[in-house]
């Protein structure tokens, strides 16, 4: 069975480098929390899945979901791995909050195998993706 994922807009991030800087700024011990008002109703199914980030109307990177917690104000904390994994960019409309994404519908990672692009700079991957070359 494929894990369940969620998608979220990287508000205020013009590119992957900006998102990476934001995540590095809040990462502690390999974990990068994302605060949101409400806990997803299917949170238990999301653990082990990923949060796929939308930048410029495209799914471009993901972070593995470690778990969920609650802050002092009662809001949800999505506990994510700090590592950003580039994925084969796919068009995705912007939306508020998050949307669920079935595992079989998730874009493939870019690292590993014959198409190992992990050695490329993130900005170049982003530009090639925008041109639909990768």
From TrEMBL:
InterPro entries in the cross-refs: UCP032025
Protein name: Lysophospholipase
Species name: Sphingomonas oleivorans
